[in-house]
Amino acid sequence: MKLTLIDSQGGCGGASLAAIQALNLLDKGHPHAEVAQTIQEIIAHTSYSFTIANLDWLQKGGRINKATSFIGDNLNIKPLLTVEAGKIVMDQLLRGHNRVYKRIIKKTVDHIGPYQDQLVVISHVGDPEIAQTLEKMLSAALPEASFVVLRVSAVLGVHLGIGGVGVFALSQLPESYDRRPAFLEK
User: Fold this and answer.
1) Which segments of 11-132 are extended strands (E)?
2) Does 112 score more than 60 pLDDT?
3) Is the model's pLDDT at 80 over the cut of 70?
4) Which of 36, 74, 99, 109 would be a feasible disulfide site paired with 4, CB 3.0-4.6 Å?
5) How many CB atoms lie within 10 A of CB 22?
6) Which domains does the chain have, with CATH numbers?
7) What is the band of 186 on the pLDDT scale with cuts at 50, 70, 90?
8) Distance separating alpha carbons of residues 168 and 120, to the nearest angstrom
9) Are 130 and 163 spatial neighbours (Cβ–Cβ below 8 Å)?
10) DSSP state of 87
């Protein structure tokens, strides 16, 4: 058995995009080297856009102080977060859930560009309703895309808090990319 360790430079939905493609390619009998190369390409072109329900979790994790958390939550400030070089970074601060969700949709559409016929992952922390809402919004904006909704693991969920949600997509599709992996239909 061959094994290649690959740093996903992120986690959750972005790593899921790579894992889904790896499983699909291996299931179809593609050679190990091709699968590893495809996963590297996926990692290089994955967009991470996510938010959290409130700032308490950033404060509890030591990323912001109590005063910032208190003021931000009272003003209904929601962070739009992304991943750059393996690190979570703040992209924008927006007022209200609707604005941050619309911005996630816009960023995803802009990132995808002409590659709209792809699998987009939506991840959530204990709030499937908001994930379904985002899926509907994305379906309207990206009618050619297919979607999979995944629940975030407890390990990551404890840092994001209930209500965290994110969208993960690719700006380029590798040559051996499968837009609709068959095993997802089972």
Assistant:
1) 46-51, 77-84, 87-95, 119-124
2) yes
3) yes
4) 36
5) 18
6) 12-170 (3.30.1180.10)
7) low
8) 6
9) yes
10) E
